[in-house]
Amino acid sequence: MVQANWRVYAVSLFAAIGGFCFGYDTGVLSGVLTMEHFIWTMRGRTFLTPLETGTLTGLLLAGCFVGALSAGQTAEILSRKRTIILASIVFMIGCAVQTAANGYGMMVTGRAIAGLGVGSLSMVVPLYQSELAPKEIRGRLISLQQFMITAGLMVSFWCGAGTQYIEGQASWRIPIGIQIAPGFVLAVGAIFLPYSPRWLISKGRNEEALDVLARLHAGGDRNSPIVNEEYNDIIQQVELERKVAVTSYTELFKQKNRRRLILGIFIQVFQQFTGINSIMYYAPRIFLQAGIAESSATLIASGVNGVLNMLATIPAILYLDKLGRRGTLISGAIFMGTAMLLCGIVMGSVAEIRYNEETDQNEVILGFNQHASYFCIVMIYFFVAGFAYSWGPTGWVYPAEIFPLNIRAKATSLTTAANWLMNFVISQIVPIMLADITWGTYIFFGCCCYAMTIAVYLFYPETKGRSLEEMDLVFDGPILVYKQKKLAKLQEKTLQSEEKGGVEEDETK
């Protein structure tokens, strides 16, 4: 089993470089948006309007939406592995266009192209990891994707903080150009990754699938009981699902699949309405609102935020398969909601709102109250830590594991596309919210987090410890999960009562 684990970890971690590309490209813009040379190159003036800022962020996300949808088809036809390679190449092309951009139009074009690659990677990497992982550590392995996303965010923040001291165009071209390197490493290295054994079996390449399972789980021993058990389970499931194969996206909405699809889509939508990307995309501006005055200070505060985000993801990697998905999501939502509400309440109580004629925006002035500034910054850090251990990783784990093989690629592409669609919406509205309702932005996202707590408690069943082939059992119960728990307890009591009655009858005889 030790051999099995290190091989699976190595493959899953390397595939998660796709998450690093995702995280870096998401975070790099937040630092670049405050650089004078970048702003002047884009528009020939000293500021960007909220709409222009939102568009620069949003075009990446629009590309991600399209990329996530298209990856559902390529993952089925070309394989998960080849889709990773193709997406990495598209990502590199988009990054190169951004790096060479000489104006606003070229930059948004590069952002859209890179988005196609990032969206495909964000869909296919968790799917690939879920199909390689043993059920006992599946949550941990898919969480590596989120860990690498946070690593990419952290590196991008510090690159932005470091290059701001460089004079001229290099100050923003260097941090944007750096992201080509991980894309190249992934594109070349993925050539040597194994194919998904579940995809191989679905294509009739059973012997290759057995070899992959043996290498990953038993050091190459094709006769291992663990390997043969998983191999036979997959074959049986594939044969069963071929009889009800899904040939179009419309069939995903039929009664048998509808519940899982709705839960998968909404967990991705909820992940965005935590407000995490309002922090990640516009961190320097948010720390400026919280009372850090200088541009360099806001970038450093964002860098510290990135480090905390990455470190707080580690508990999820270690304990998600022990603690379960439901408890992690509920506790994280409560933690984040409390932090957001407290930040908004304090900021609203003591901040001064001033209108800036140059940028045509409202600005929060909190620096005169040092204690309130520190408190709001700490609450933002608490919020990020709460997201990193809960909704960050679990938001990707849950959709990747709940669907049967015959719809997994198509369904996961829809759930991931929903994530990017809501991400796009958030990127468009947050600059306007920060400018118009200022501290009310934090109150809004805090309330969203509490609403998510209720939704998870009512509708989301626990999936830990179940194989991908056992998920039908999880979702056959009542739609309201607490009723499912009551039913399970009642069945357990009935069984115990019957066993006790049987024992008493034997004793009487």
From TrEMBL:
The chain crosses the membrane at residues 54-72, 84-101, 107-127, 147-166, 172-195, 261-283, 295-320, 332-351, 371-391, 411-433, 439-460. It is a multi-pass membrane protein. The keyword Transport applies. Signal peptide: none annotated. The keyword Transmembrane helix applies. Residues 11-464 form the Major facilitator superfamily (MFS) profile domain. One of its GO terms (molecular function) is carbohydrate:proton symporter activity. Pfam families: Sugar_tr. GO terms for cellular component: membrane. SUPFAM superfamilies: MFS general substrate transporter (SSF103473). It is found in: Membrane. Belongs to the major facilitator superfamily. Sugar transporter (TC 2.A.1.1) family. NCBIfam families: SP. This is General substrate transporter. It comes from Phascolomyces articulosus. The lineage of its organism: Eukaryota, Fungi, Fungi incertae sedis, Mucoromycota, Mucoromycotina.
